[in-house]
């Protein structure tokens, strides 16, 4: 039996696996290095993530004051929480080593580089992690080439599935 993308228990909560994915990132950016970073969350944010609700499509990471911050990530409020709920788009601290932070800071200082979140997931220990990548923005002709290559791969797979009968 194939394992699903998300491992949801009986109650519908994600114990480990993918929560959110930035599918546009690889289209809009040429991703170089990737890095797995921890993320500092409050209790209601974790519960909201366990329900599988988060959006990182418009988010980015920024090194500020010797720390790495996730900006503009949307984690909706946990409806069962009362007055202790969190802000939906608050900046969240990312946990990386000083060496990794220095490298990312140096790369961002270069023109055109951005730290892009790629995937938000729970690892095997049940901790929330964020896969971030160092991206350089693509030009329009690069995006067209990516789209053309993706279409050709789809057509090629269809032709191979049909047994070469074009």
Task: Give a quick rundown of the structure.
The protein has 166 residues and is an alpha+beta fold.
Plain-language structure description:
The protein has four helices and eight strands, in the order E-E-H-E-H-E-E-E-H-E-E-H. 28% of the residues lie in helices and 34% in strands. A hairpin with a 2-residue loop joins strand 4 and strand 5. It has an eight-stranded antiparallel β-sheet with strand order 1-2-7-8-3-6-5-4. The protein is α+β, with helices and mostly antiparallel strands. The protein has one domain: Small Protein B, Chain: A (Beta Barrel). The mean pLDDT is 81. The relative contact order is 0.22. Keywords: Cytoplasm, RNA-binding.
Mean pLDDT: 81
The name of the CATH superfamily reads: Small protein B
Query: What is the percentage of strand-forming residues?
Result: 25-35%
CATH A-level architecture: Beta Barrel
Main beta sheet: 8 strands, antiparallel
| Termini Cα gap | 33 Å
Region (Disordered): 138-166
Biased composition (Basic and acidic residues): 139-166
Family: Belongs to the SmpB family.
Pfam families: SmpB
